[in-house]
From TrEMBL, chain A:
Presence of keyword rRNA-binding: no
Transmembrane segments: 392-419, 559-580
Species the sequence originates in: Naegleria gruberi
Glycoprotein found in the keyword field: no
Name assigned to this protein: Rab-GAP TBC domain-containing protein
Domain Rab-GAP TBC per the UniProt entry, residue ranges: 127-379
GO biological process: endoplasmic reticulum to Golgi vesicle-mediated transport
Keywords: GTPase activation, Membrane, Transmembrane, Transmembrane helix
GO MF term list: GTPase activator activity
SUPFAM superfamilies linked to this entry: Ypt/Rab-GAP domain of gyp1p
Residue ranges, compositional bias (Polar residues): 7-28
Gene Ontology CC annotation, any one: endoplasmic reticulum membrane
From TrEMBL, chain B:
Protein's name according to its UniProt entry: Rab family small GTPase
Species for this entry: Naegleria gruberi
Lineage, highest ranks first: Eukaryota, Discoba, Heterolobosea, Tetramitia, Eutetramitia
Keyword tags: GTP-binding, Lipoprotein, Membrane, Nucleotide-binding, Prenylation
NCBIfam families found in the cross-reference section: small_GTP (TIGR00231)
Transmembrane segments: none
Length: 591, 212
């Protein structure tokens, strides 16, 4: 792997493109990339950003995605997938350039400098826009054919669902009550400015402008929900039925179906997987092909342990790892509280790990209070005090999980969430009357924490035991309401530094199976962790500045050790001299 | 308000039968038509009055899907009462009761009181399991039985209160040892032996069958 900062032929190749880009900014879009950005009046699945820092990151990301799309290896791969007859020689050097670009992309996604200049609900972490995610997520999941819309993929054949399949009914039941929490905010006060663009034009109803209708009203919302749920059912069921169809030879592939089926293995659905697929479906705005392929890749890799077993024992194993990370990171006080309350098994984190927090994060929805007000600018809609919709928070987390790429990383984020709530846990440990503890908890969490105590409300004894299963479980299991992007950034930042400091391979050497990356392309993610610079979540410019600052500091400080050495040496000599003298003088009387 | 006892409950049954909705109706007095599914366990609590005694119910609501079974099992122990719920409009949820019951009996303590609940009785037109069938199953397996509607708040109070009353009786008869917390009962500060005769019990006898 080439090291950071090396001037490579690729860089010069791309410099033209980059310069061009800068001149015409984002208003021009290349053949295939990011058409939506042209439409200034449409905010694609996201809110309008006031901060220029955020805009700068968007531009950077766009340019990088463009570079990747123009990479020779990438283009060849697409051609290869598109028409298989053509003989294509894949160049190793080009592949390496491609991998480098991908790693650059990962780092850029994870980088979030300029925290100080941003509002509580702004962030430069992640991909920021849905239009970017639509290109970045498939790239991070190594889905090279995501742009070949005409390709007959597995999905086309699995689309004919087998309604007698043993998992069909369960999925249908879960899909029936899905998506509500993600969509609801867009039918409240957000609805006027935030419009989803349906890139696939697959909407069955003409009066819907893309994913979410501009019209208010529960009738429209129901239409929208029904349409999206039908799509979700298609995606989830197709994934679960792929193996069977392969075995029945209904899917034709150049590889022998039996061999493929063996590779795929039976997938077991768990409640919560549909929520992961919902996030993808909403992000890809009903592009079913992409949603299917990316969800399928997640099922086979990131959620491999949960989906390849009838039981979730592997996930409970991950839950138990949280306390080990906390221990290693020196949070003995937290560990003590967790152990004393029998929480060391990490039951509270089950849904966090199982669904990448998609299940547990549930922000309040605004009511349609200012319906009559004509809101023209979106800045009004998401001001400082407003609540970030659940979907935006979850998408940002998904950006991070995909960029890191390692299925173990979520455990570090879970540990980081627990650390974030340290103050509250210590309030429980310190005890006091019910009323005072309640008050302190509310103050510490900004009113976000609600715990049900197994004590009566008027109990004013001082020696009540709060470090108890129900209380601690109640505190941790119920996620703080209405978290902000700043909160998320803090949690992710901490998780990333713990990820770097406490290598999971040494921390969980006995717990994790040898092959935690079942598929070869995931190996690259592991490779990335191994060989990348220590702070690989910083983007290159940031890295360069930090290195420069370090160098400057080092050159200043290099004088200091020398002087200390000299001063120290003299001091030592004097000390020896004095002690020798005193010994000499002391010894005289004995003579 | 101080309580005399704290009872631990567990709600079990197939996915989508309305376990979480029953809990929400009981603790918050509201019904959510689109209720998020439960992953792992969640819990709620409410104070009730049994024969003049304040009793706090701590109710653990479990995930219904098979995958979570090994995780929810650990919550059976230390429960004084269980609500075993099925959906009267889906026959298969009734068929699975035997498995649930076996599981509950195997992993809980022998003094646990189990109540069979046939939920969604507001959907009488789509009924797939008759009241008599439910009652017969309950008699066969020595369970208490009620049909409820979490949507219309019918018999929800009764289901929780009735179970509490039986647990209370078991305590009075000495069947449940309150000093052992594994039995799902915790003694609080308020008096447990004296019955306040002035205060009328807030609970009425369960109506038996709801929705006529």
């Amino acid at each position: 792997m080439r090291k950071r900062g090396d001037s490579s032929p690729t860089t010069s190749e791309y410099s033209d493109v980059t310069n061009q880009q800068e001149q015409i900014t984002t208003s021009s879009s290349p053949r295939i990339v990011l058409e939506e950005i042209n439409n200034d009046h449409i905010i694609v699945g996201n809110y309008h950003h006031q901060s220029s820092k955020i805009f700068a990151k968007v531009v950077k990301l766009e340019q990088l995605v463009k570079q990747i799309h123009q990479n020779k290896y990438y283009i060849k791969r697409i051609k290869f997938v598109k028409d298989q007859s053509e003989e294509i020689v894949l160049n190793e050097n080009e592949k390496e350039q491609f991998t480098d670009l991908l790693n650059k992309l990962r780092r850029l996604i994870l980088s979030s400098p300029d925290r100080e200049s941003l509002e509580e609900n702004e962030t430069t972490l992640g991909c920021i826009k849905d239009s970017l995610r639509q290109h970045v997520w498939p790239l991070l999941l190594h889905d090279p054919d995501h742009l070949c819309k005409d390709k007959q993929t597995v999905f086309h054949l699995t689309k004919k669902l087998d309604k007698t399949h043993e998992q069909y009914e369960q999925v249908e039941k879960d899909v029936e009550r899905s998506l509500f929490k993600f969509l609801a905010p867009f039918f409240g006060r957000y609805n006027k400015s935030i419009v989803y663009v349906n890139t696939s034009n697959a909407s069955s109803t003409s009066n819907l402008s893309g994913g979410v209708s501009k019209n208010v009203g529960s009738k429209t919302m129901n239409l929208e929900l029904n349409y999206k749920r039908k799509n979700l059912s298609l995606v989830v069921n197709s994934i679960l039925q792929t193996e069977k169809k392969l075995k029945q030879n209904e899917i034709l592939d150049e590889e022998s179906p039996e061999k493929l089926a063996e590779k795929v293995g039976q997938l077991y659905y768990f409640q919560g997987f549909h929520e992961i697929c919902s996030v993808l479906l909403l992000t890809f705005q009903d592009s079913l092909e992409t949603t299917f392929r990316c969800s399928y890749r997640l099922a086979m890799n990131h959620f491999h342990d949960a989906m390849h077993s009838l039981h979730l024992d592997a996930i409970m194993k991950k839950c138990r790892m949280i306390i080990k990370i906390l221990e290693k990171d020196g949070h003995d006080d937290i560990c003590q509280v967790l152990r004393k309350s029998d929480m060391d098994q990490g039951h509270y984190a089950l849904s966090w790990i199982l669904t990448w927090f998609a299940h547990v994060i549930d922000q309040d929805c605004h009511d349609k209070e200012d319906e009559t007000e004509t809101v023209s600018t979106s800045s009004k809609i998401l001001n400082e005090n407003s609540i970030m919709p659940t979907l935006f928070i979850v998408q940002t987390l998904f950006d991070v999980f995909l960029a890191v790429g390692n299925p173990m990383f979520v455990v570090y984020v879970a540990a980081s969430v627990v650390i974030e709530r340290k103050e509250e846990l210590l309030i429980l440990r310190n005890g006091g009357s019910v009323a005072s503890v309640r008050e302190k908890l509310s103050a510490a969490s900004g009113g976000r924490t609600e715990v049900d105590f197994p004590f009566s409300a008027d109990e004013d004894e001082e020696n009540l035991n709060y470090v108890e299963f129900t209380v601690v479980f109640g505190l941790l299991n119920r996620f703080p309401k209405n978290v902000t992007l700043r909160w998320i950034e803090r949690v992710i930042g901490r998780a990333l530094s713990m990820w770097k400091e406490h290598d999971y391979r040494s921390l969980f050497a006995t717990e994790i199976p040898n092959d935690s990356f079942p598929f070869p392309y995931m190996k690259e993610c592991e490779h990335l962790t191994e060989n990348s610079p220590p702070d690989y979540w910083r983007d290159e410019e940031e890295e360069r500045l930090i290195q420069e600052a370090k160098r400057k500091a080092a050159s200043k400080h290099s004088v200091v050790p020398a002087t200390t050495l000299i001063v120290g040496g003299i001091a030592l000599a004097i000390a020896v001299y004095i002690s020798a003298q005193s010994w000499f003088f002391q010894s005289i009387p004995f003579k | 308000m101080s309580y005399s006892y704290l009872f631990k409950y567990i709600i079990i049954g197939d996915t989508g039968v309305g376990k979480s909705c029953l809990l929400l109706q009981f603790t918050d007095k509201r019904f959510q038509p689109v209720h998020d599914l439960t992953i792992g366990v969640e819990f709620g609590a409410r104070m009730i009055n049994i024969d003049g005694k304040q009793v706090k119910l701590q109710i653990w609501d479990t995930a219904g899907q098979e995958s979570f079974r090994s995780i929810t099992r650990s919550y059976y122990r230390g429960a004084a009462g269980a609500l075993l719920v099925y959906d009267i409009t889906r026959r298969e949820t009734f068929h699975h009761l035997t498995t649930w019951l076996e599981d509950a009996r195997r992993h809980s303590n022998s003094t646990m009181t189990i109540m069979l609940v046939g939920n969604k009785c507001d959907l009488d037109s789509r009924r797939a399991v008759s009241y008599e069938e439910g009652k017969k199953f309950a008699q066969q397996h020595d369970l208490i039985f009620l049909e409820t509607s979490a949507k219309n708040d019918e018999n929800v109070e009764e289901a929780f209160n009735y179970t509490a009353r039986i647990i209370n009786e078991k305590i009075e008869k000495g069947i449940i040892d309150v000093t052992n917390e594994m039995n799902g009962v915790k003694v609080g500060n308020a008096p447990t032996a004296t019955t306040n005769l002035l205060e009328k019990p807030t609970t009425s006898e369960p109506k038996g069958k709801c929705c006529g």
